[in-house]
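Lecture notes, unit on protein representations.

Consider one protein chain, 418 amino acids long.
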Amino acid sequence: MDTSSGTQPHRMDPAGGCPHADNARLLARGAVAPVLLPGDIEGMAVLGHDALKEFLAHPEVAKNARHFTALQEGRTAPGWPLLTFATVQGMTTADGEDHRRLRSLVSKAFTARRVERLRPWIEELTSALLDGLGRAAEEGGQVADLRAHFALPLPMGVIGELLGVDAEHRDRLHHLSNQVVATDIGPEQAIAANRELVAVLSTVAAARAERPGDDLTSALIAARDEGGDRLSQQELIGTLVLMIIAGHETTLNLITNAVRALCGNRDQLELVRKGDAGWPDVVEETLRWDAPVSYFPFRYPVRDLTVDGTVIPAGTPVLAGYSAAGRDPAAHGPDADRFDVTRPARSETTRHLSLGHGAHYCLGAPLARMEATIALERLFTRFPDLELAVPEAELARHSSFVGNSVRALPVRPGVPRS
């Protein structure tokens, strides 16, 4: 690890918490920072917008864990909490031709036409969930957990529908994926959660193999069964793991963070209501200002690489610091830490990176944007006086430095508008 500047590695807090104060301190030192991961594994974090954009698209940066030196040398303990991010077999851990092959199999589910076909169904589900949120508030003394009753079941319902996951499995899959992204989990819990997640998704795949439908899992199984090298069984299950986690956790955090931002900045909500900004603007500003993923593991330089003047040794596990890059003043101006839905459209060079960049750009980005836009517009139309039921500072944060949000979001919806 390069510490020639005298900078001591920043110890990543497994308990998570709000990332923004630490991000600002690290960014003040430079765009790239040495970090200590759980288990005292040495890593690096790329925090600055320009440096991250360069790093994400660099041709000599890999995703396959065969390039992860500490893992290959046996220095990561069994049950290491970040192991799944490194070893799951799927698009996010594949390079080159393998990545293109796996991405092409999944991308058919996320074409613009197919995503748009989901709009009426998403709108219908949103309305039903808002009915449920209203009922929960009536039963709970005018307070309800918006995350549990609305922000979670919406994207989980959508990804469940896309993958052909029966409703009976969805709550369990959310619980297990939450444990997989937790960074404070113990080794035995981590191993058990990963095993059960694979087991549940294997059950889902077996059901779809027996009764194929118009869903992505059935399509992937068909690709597997066609023979050749299109898809192995491990890649099938690995792809389902990635799709379940990425397909609902990020959108769940996006919706939750946007509601928090609007409730804490009522002037910005009023600008949307007056037509001075649109709901898509709220979504984009939330993605920048409070990214759903704070630090995403991992990428590995295949040779010693200098990024913004800092050497990242070959084989180092590198975190993509999306939440830090979103508030980088060098890219977003001196008011980068201010939530502003009328923020002037930035150029291509300074557009936020919260959904990735380069070959691994998020396939589900159009779907996530659609879900969040519909959710926010319908929520604040139905409940125009919605407010947080507890102060922002008292909201319990995720136990993870990967996901960036809160565990629950108690709100007072107020009187619904018909």
